[in-house]
Amino acid sequence: MGERKNAEEGKAEFLRAAEEMYEELHAWREKHLDASFDEIGDQITPQRRKLVSKLLEQLAVRADERIEAPECEQCGEGMRYRGTPERDVSHREGDVGLERAYYYCDSCERGLFPPRPSAQTE
């Protein structure tokens, strides 16, 4: 996934993808004028899921910007930051590869991905 984008870059990327989806679907429709409503919907659904997965990814990684090292929910010890591994997350709106902060408790040997923002930053 690389470096995180700022909000304006993310918006521009999303709008480019939406415009591309729009153009592709209209081009498909021009070639399939006899397509039924359901056939049109069948073309839209995977494109929409792909587009919305981009938005899901952008919104999900925004939370990491507000996170401080959390305390372990089990023992109360401070957790240690262990990088930002990528995980594949499936959702009815799309499948996303997310890079999120991962924290680990040395005492309990438990990991937390993704951590929740602390109460004072919400």
Largest sheet: 3 strands, antiparallel
| Ends apart, CA distance between termini | 26 Å
Helical region count?
A: 2
DSSP E strands, number: 5
Q: SSE string, helix = H, strand = E?
A: HHEEEEE
Categorize the overall geometry: elongated
Mean pLDDT: 82
- By helix and strand content, what is the structural category? alpha+beta
- Low-confidence stretches are 118-122
The percent range for strand residues is 15-25%
Radius of gyration: 20 Å
Trace the largest sheet across and list its strands. 1-4-5
Helical content band: 40-55%
Taken together, the total number of domains comes to: 1
3D architecture notes:
The protein is of the alpha+beta class and 122 residues long. It has one domain (7-121). It has helices at residues 7-31, 37-62; strands at 80-81, 86-91, 94-99, 103-105, 110-112. The chain is elongated, with a radius of gyration of 20 Å. The model is unreliable at 118-122 (pLDDT under 50).
